């Protein structure tokens, strides 16, 4: 049986006497596509960052691929795109090809160096996201949506086993957004990549994700979207909103 990419027991985070996460216990199996949703301030970004060992205040147990987070070193298995907060400086001294290439090299053990075929893989990834024509452009001079597509390519170019995405489509236009959802679904199904995807759009997550995690400082629901739609407990929590979400999905 494959080792679970993520196993969490009793994860809690408190900042300055404010509880951000409380007693999170869950397992993400190999090949899962988990949509993480919840209201603003529900701890979604903190949850992802804690999984990656980026929250010093975290209490509890987190394992990645069967290894305690404190001892985990196989970062090449993981792709991560944090929440976008601003455009890159127009003077940032790297073009699109170099940024994506850096993601490929960074995933390797030392010595980190290029290998034959790397440029071809980078170009193929740029093609997948429809930005091959931008390969020689300075990333800081691109639009916000274009930059986001470059950073998505950077997170995927090394074919990670586990991909964590924090609201990656907010800067994308509707057409590009739909293409990205479709591409991510292919990555999950064709490569077996395990995905955790933070989104505000519950109905979209119901359409694409195999599992649905509703977070509000603690886990309110974790299971399939179909189970969410038929859960009386969730009906009590969401009220009429549950039926609206499921209707939009259908």
Overview of this protein structure:
The protein is α/β, with parallel strands linked by helices and 250 residues long. It has a single domain, classed as P-loop containing nucleotide triphosphate hydrolases (Rossmann fold). Helices cover 36% and strands 23% of the residues. The chain has nine helices and ten strands. It has helices at residues 44-51, 96-106, 118-128, 144-156, 174-191, 202-208, 225-229, 232-238, 240-249; strands spanning 6-15, 18-28, 33-37, 59-64, 67-68, 78-81, 162-166, 194-198, 211-215, 219-223. Strands 6-7-8-3-9-10 form a six-stranded mixed sheet, with helices on both faces. A four-stranded antiparallel sheet has the order 2-1-4-5, covered by helices on one side.
Name the features.
single chain, 250 residues, alpha/beta, Rossmann fold, six-stranded mixed β-sheet, four-stranded antiparallel β-sheet, 9 helices, 36% helix, globular
List the helices and strands and how they pair.
Blueprint: E1 6-15, E2 18-28, E3 33-37, H1 44-51, E4 59-64, E5 67-68, E6 78-81, H2 96-106, H3 118-128, H4 144-156, E7 162-166, H5 174-191, E8 194-198, H6 202-208, E9 211-215, E10 219-223, H7 225-229, H8 232-238, H9 240-249
Parallel strand pairs: 3-8, 3-9, 6-7, 7-8
Antiparallel strand pairs: 1-2, 1-4, 4-5, 9-10
Helix pairs in contact: 2-3, 2-4, 3-4, 6-9, 8-9
* Mean of pLDDT: 87
Instruction: Report the span from N to C terminus.
Output: 33 Å
Number of domains: 1
Rounded to an integer in angstroms, the radius of gyration calculated over CA atoms is 19 Å
CATH topology (fold) name: Rossmann fold
Task: Please name the fourth-level CATH homologous superfamily.
Answer: P-loop containing nucleotide triphosphate hydrolases
**What is the CATH C level class, in words?**
Alpha Beta
How many strand elements?
10
Q: From N to C, what is the helix and strand string? A: EEEHEEEHHHEHEHEEHHH
Note the main sheet: 6 strands, mixed
């Amino acid at each position: 049986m494959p080792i679970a990419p993520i196993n969490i027991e009793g994860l809690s985070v408190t900042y300055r006497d404010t509880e951000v996460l409380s007693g999170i216990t869950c397992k993400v199996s190999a090949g899962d596509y988990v949509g993480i949703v919840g209201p603003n301030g529900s701890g979604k970004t903190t949850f992802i960052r804690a999984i990656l060992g980026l929250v010093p205040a975290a209490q509890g147990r987190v394992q990645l691929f069967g290894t305690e987070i404190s001892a985990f070193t196989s970062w090449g298995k993981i792709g991560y795109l944090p929440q976008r907060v601003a455009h890159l400086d127009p003077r940032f001294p790297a073009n699109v090809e170099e940024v994506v290439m850096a993601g490929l090299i960074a995933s390797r053990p030392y010595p980190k160096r290029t290998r034959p075929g790397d440029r071809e893989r980078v170009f193929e990834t740029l093609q997948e996201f429809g930005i091959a024509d931008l390969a020689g452009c300075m990333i800081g001079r691109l639009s916000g949506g274009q930059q986001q597509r470059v950073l998505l390519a950077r997170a995927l170019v090394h074919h990670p086993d586990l991909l964590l995405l924090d609201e990656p489509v907010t800067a994308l236009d509707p057409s590009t957004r739909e293409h990205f959802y479709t591409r991510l679904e292919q990555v999950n199904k064709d490569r077996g990549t395990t995905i955790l995807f933070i989104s505000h759009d519950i109905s979209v997550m119901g359409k694409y994700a195999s599992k649905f995690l509703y977070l509000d400082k603690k886990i309110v629901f974790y299971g399939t979207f179909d189970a969410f739609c038929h859960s009386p407990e969730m009906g009590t929590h969401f009220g009429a909103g549950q039926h609206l979400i499921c209707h939009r999905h259908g």
